[in-house]
Amino acid sequence: MAGYLLRRLFHALLTLIGISLITFIILFALPGDPVNRVAGRMANDQQKALVREQLGLDRPLWEQYGRYVGKLATGDLGRSFMQRSEVSELVGARLPATLWLMLAAIVCELVIGLSIGAVAAFRRNTLLDQSVMVGAFVFVSAPQFLLGYTLLYVFAVWLGWFPIGGYGSLSQIVLPALTLGLLGGGWYARMMRSSVIEVLRQDFVRTARAKGLSRLRIVFVHIVPNAILPIIAMVGIDIGIFMSGIVVVESVFGWPGIGQLTWQAIQQLDIPIIMGVTLVSACAIVLGNLLADLAAPLIDPRIRLK
Amino acid sequence: MALQKPIGDILLDVRNLSVEFASPQGAVRVIDKLSFDLRAGETLCIAGESGSGKSVTALSLMGLLPKPGGRVAEGSAQFLGRDLLKLDEAAMSRLRGNEISMIFQEPMTSLNPVLSIGTQLTEGLVRHLGLSQADARARALQALDAVRMSEPQRRLKQYPHELSGGMRQRVMIAMAMAARPKILIADEPTTALDVTIQAQILELMATLQRETGTAIIMITHDMGVVAEIADRVVVMRKGEAVERGTTAEIFTHQQHPYTRALLAAVPTFSQGAAAPTAPDLTATAPLITVKDLIVRFDIKGGLLQRVQQRVHAVEKVSFELMPGETLALVGESGCGKSTTGKALMHLVPSIGDIRIEGEAALGQSWGRKSGAELKAIRRRVQMIFQDPLASLDPRMSVGDLVIEPLIIHNIGTPQQRREQAAELFRRVGLTPDQLARFPHEFSGGQRQRICIARALALGPKAIVADECVSALDVSIQAQILELMQELQDELGISYLFISHDMAVVERISHRVAVMSMGQIVETGPTRAVLGNPQHPYTRKLLAAVPIPDPARRHADDWQRNRQRIEGEVPSPFQSVDFTPTYVTYRDLGGGHLVAA
Question: Which CATH class is domain A96-256?
Fold first, then answer.
């Protein structure tokens, strides 16, 4: 077990180094010069050169990257160009909000997706199945901001059930989590449906019925654990897609998470923040995958480590 | 028959059972007015070929017909004063696994992979008998003990993937018998098992029946199994019972021509006496020479993906295949027979010396070959497989499938290729107008003919036939074997015939090589090896072959505890530091070699 974790951590390290390099190159290949933003519109060439030197942007790319990685090794994510404070502080202050939202949204999408998918599978080729699946398809294809504003309008403005935005109370997390949950839930519903249908065809389900077990036991003990096995691995991968959705949803609901921070940073070409957020997100994805891989053996004895 | 069982009153009385399945063309009747009865304590075999409706009969009695789709159209099945066909799902689920149990063909997939054996054994007992967890575990232990499972305590904590196929089928039987049902329905319970394991399971079922008095409905396509275990037999064909009677009557005084044809098609194992005479090949050079062939697979894992286990699939196998001869490779699953065939086709990496027509072109290291070298090999050696449907691309017409090898090897013009395909189709007993159709439009036997046509397209000198008739009904099996023999007579083609079925091997092969744990333990002319087996493994294998003659059933031996077949099929998985010990051969004369 320790050996396994060690290997996974080693892989994670390689992944992070790769991601940091690629992000670095992409950011510098982008049109637009961060110096223009930092120095301001009125700055002359001399002032710009000074800012460039201060930020270290006058050095060759490889040297900049080397310095960045060197500082990274000591846990230093650098300073923001615009906000003049440590990236680790900026990100750290906003991370809890995002993690809360993520947790709530993942619970939301799994509860919605798995239950709807399973019901559709058991009632497959009925009107219920078809309408639920059309609904799921709509949510899969809906843009995040559209669904976000719709929920906001209906439940906050019109019905007044939930606050319009903000952060701090349980009622404030419902709408952003539901937005992400419905979007992801549609996807999981489709996966769960085909997974359950696949399991229903298996011989061991016939055996369970031939043993005269109750319907509830057949569904929850024999079918569901087998059906969610392929989905566990997907949850780990899904966190990446999640991170991109969270950027949009956080700005729709004014949620003070790293999504908003990223949004601002991208508009201002604040490279240290973009780098920092990217690396933190990458860590989350790697961690998510690791957790998913550790969770799967809890259900599936075939992949348990000896 | 020495076997005396107390046969009681009628337990299950099935009258005019008719079952329909929905199809786009309307309801199709798959069982038509089937009637039979089952007495307490007896074994009734429902025998028939695929599509006869024998499995559907079992499912409809259990109320397990696929829904939507299947439905019982009419009939009754009286069991202890109740009509099984009229019971609702709630009442039926209280009967299933309690009064009537069922076991299935595929032990590998019939157990839930994520639940422990203990959970799967106890859940039915908790449900039907209202036992506490502790009592249910005690009862489950007894059940495992009854099916002669080693270390029953440990098995309860194990999961299905940790058990072999034979052990899983024992668990299935333990599960079915734990609640002491009055009726056990067994749907082809030994078809997926090796022949020695089949013998063990049949013996176990017979013994359990004597101990518990459970009536058994055994569904099988194998007349050998029928002869071994049945008291009475119902022969089904296309949803109807064509004949019924005691086992002795069915085997000696059949009334219906179908029963007669079915029995005639069953290859009877006769200790080598029925083997074809080997052609005189003393002056001929061998077509294929295999010397010291070794195939090993590494199983990697751990931190640095180090090799943790090694499969010693083939260990220094040597043989010669003469022109126009059939050499059978026989043995149980995991013995390396299929891997040997694949190595010959260069489908798996191997080391050793393989020469085709004396050409050492293939060299000492059989490792990597260029495309051209591979083509040269495969022009001369072709392969056919067990599952003809799975080996044909469903999106290509069968004509294109037969022509494809010619395109790959750049032989002929499009016009010539089409003509050759038509000719090949005629040759294998199909008609050229079928060339435009697709694989799913053919029957299993026809598909295997298509596979043979495809293998013949390049005019190979030898064909590796890997269990090529194992998935076919006996009547179809006989036709395919006949076709293969005709092709050999006409074209002088050689076969490396890989099979687990001794009766089929006896019928077609001139020579036999028996494999165990990756090595050949006995080889020689079919008559000599099957008639006068010397190696203990060969003897065990032959003793387990079911014989379609109720007068010679093994059950009598089992009862007297003679020739009891025990043990698991040996596994080729070994630790990394394992060094195989190689057998040396004793020559018994006439080419009959046996591992000393």
Answer: mainly alpha
